[in-house]
Structure formats: structure tokens, C-alpha cells
Design goal:
This protein has about 425 residues and is α/β, with parallel strands linked by helices. The chain is about 50% helix and about 5% strand. The protein has four domains: about 130 residues, P-loop containing nucleotide triphosphate hydrolases (Rossmann fold), CATH 3.40.50; about 70 residues, Helicase, Ruva Protein, domain 3, CATH 1.10.8; about 90 residues, Zinc Finger, Delta Prime, domain 3 (Up-down Bundle); about 70 residues, post-AAA+ oligomerization domain-like, CATH 1.10.3710. The longest helix is centred in the middle third of the chain and has 16 residues. About 25% of the residues are buried.
Amino acid sequence: MSETLIPLPERLRPRDLSQIIGQAHLLGEQAPLRQMIDQGHLPSLIFWGPPGVGKTTIALLLAQAVDRPFISLSALNTGVKELREIIADSGDLLTPVVFIDEIHRFNKSQQDALLSAVEKGKITLIGATTENPSFEVNNALLSRCQVYRLNALDEQAIEQLLRYALQQDQFLKERHIQIGEFDALIQFAAGDARKALNLLDLIANTFEPDVENVIDNAVVVRVAQQNIARYDQSGEQHYDLVSALIKSIRGSDPDASLYWLARMLKGGEDPVFIARRMLIAASEDIGNSNPNALLLAGECFRSVQAIGMPEARIILGQTAVYLATSAKSNSTYLAINRAMELAEKTANLSVPLHLRNAPTKMMQKEGYGVDYLYPHNYPEHFVTQDYLPPELKGTKLYTSARNKREVEAERLQQRRWSEEQQ
């Protein structure tokens, strides 16, 4: 195959760990992976990080550094049967390094098939995942592996990579490629080394040979067309962005709320999902400090379902700003959590007789409903009365956040407590 038909990332794939650009926290002097290799030791690992940061390459080079066979698999096309056959055959080899790309796509039975072999040292597993392994890899397998986080390449690393490509790749040399501006290349790469090199390769192939060719920002934008936001609706970024949105609303920052909302919408997030999360925030973080927030969020949820994008962005934006600028209180959220915990511990306690319903004469005879005081028969529709089981008398679960609305609603509760103290 002609070398020019091989993609630039493959042409420049590092042949030694010293050629890896980035990940100094793992491969630099005194870093954990470097120390392991220096000691000739390689345990089972899981590499967690975004695409294009070197997970596959590092796994291969680690196996080579300790002089071990390397078996590369993809979770997309490897079943339990194939795994067991590979593990059975590994007995004839010096403990092989079995690399599984996208290990988060393995189901429980596939992951379980690896457990015994990893534990007994029949194989050294290196799994690669773009997803948070604590969500996607079962605990039994996690406990047998060391998890290392690989980072997206920063701007300096991407520029270093591109300069290295110009110096090392024969095709780029023949095209007399120079980079006059790095900004657009770095922006489109978004921390992904593979994406940066593929874009450089694509641009280089548009140039004429035997002339000086300079890449500037305008050339990059023209070739790349548009910067498509990298967004995985089922992965960690999905949860990170919605977390940022809700925390911005909770922190009363309308600008940040709109920004994270726009990031999610640009990435193709389901607007109904966003509306649902804001509906929860309206109760959890605002609650009775402003009951209208829940009403508006509920209407937002229904409207987004009815209208859809792109118009739904307006309704979502309006609701996000309203929630962010509203008074905040989590008093009810805390109270119901305390109540749920108490209910779990005291599920054996009986409902006091005076609070029980008595639809039959036999129940009335048993004392159901006797001595119940009907509040509407008393001034201000209030009367002091025990509503909890005797064993829980005096328990206080709800504490007002002391905002205007909740203090006003707390008046009768304070009166009840003061009368019970007398």
C-alpha cells in the first residue's frame, strides 16, 4: 500500500513510549506507568479518557516494553465464546496482554468471563473506555484493575504534535507544508490527536506539490466546514453538562445556565430530558420559596413535548433564567429525605387510633377515629394534636429556610410547637 494511502495518524503512530505526546502525569519521570515499566511490572489496567489521546498506542507500547505478547480485541465484535478461547489458548504464551477497546460495551457476562483469568494472572487485561468505568465496568472487574485517566491534549500538546508531523512525515515534507496559524487547527482538534492529524492530512491533500503551501485559519475553516460539537448523549459528558446546568441554576447564575443549556442543545441533547431535569430543580432547589417555579417548569416540560426544536430552545431558555434568578430553598428536599430515612427505620410503628379512618361500626367499636380533633371546628382552623406515632413524638423533620414565603407558612407550625411545650 502506498504510504500516502495510510492515514497520517497511523503513519506517525509512536514506536516508543518516549514518542508519546501528552499524558506526562502517567508517562513522565517518576509517573506511575513509567515506574511500572522500569521495574518490568505490568498489572491489569483500565484506561479511561476521550477519543484520540493514545489509549491503544500506550497499551501496545507497554506490552512491548515488558516483552509480552499483545492481543487486541474490540468489544464490538468479541463475544464470550471468543474470550474463553483466547484465555484457553493463552496458557501456551508468556502471560499475554489482552487489550479490549471500548470495554464499556461488554455486558455483564462478557466482563465476568474475564474475572478468573485476570485474578489468576493468566492474562494481563488492558481495557480502554471513553465512559466513566465506575458506571460501565462491574465492581468485580474494577477491583482487579488499576484505573488511569488519560486527558485530552491541551493546546500546547496539539501544536507540538502538529510541528512533529511536519518534521517527521515524508509526504508533508514533499508538499512543503508550513503552518502559519495554529488556532483553527487546535480548535477543530478539541484535544483529539487523531482528529488533529487527520485534519492536517486532509488539508495537505488539497494542496499542489512542489510549491510552498501555508496553512492559516481561513484554510482550515474552509476545509473543515464546521466545528461539530463532540457530545455523547449516553456518556459521561451527557451527565457532566446537565450537572453544570443544574448547579448553575442552583447557584443563581443565569448566564452560566444559558451557556450550559446552549451547549447541550448544540450537541443534540433531547430537549425533553433538559426540561425534565429543570422540573426536578424547581422543586429540589427552589421549592416553597417560590412555588410558581414548579408551575412554570411543569408548563415548560409540556410545551417542549408539544413544540420540539428549534422553538423549544426559547421556552427552555426562559425557564432556565427564571429558575436561576428565583429565590432558593432546599428545605422540603431535606425534609422528605429525612422522612424517608425515618420511615425505613420505623416501618413497624402503627398509625395512632385517633388518626385512623373508621368506615365500619366494628372499626368504630375498636376505637378507630376516636378523640380525633377536626381542625376546622377550631379558631383559625387549627388545634394542637399529635399526628405522629407516640414513639416519634417531638420529631422535627422540616426546618424552614427562613425566606419570606416559608416563614409565613411556618406560623402555624411554630404555634403548634409552642403549645406542645406548655
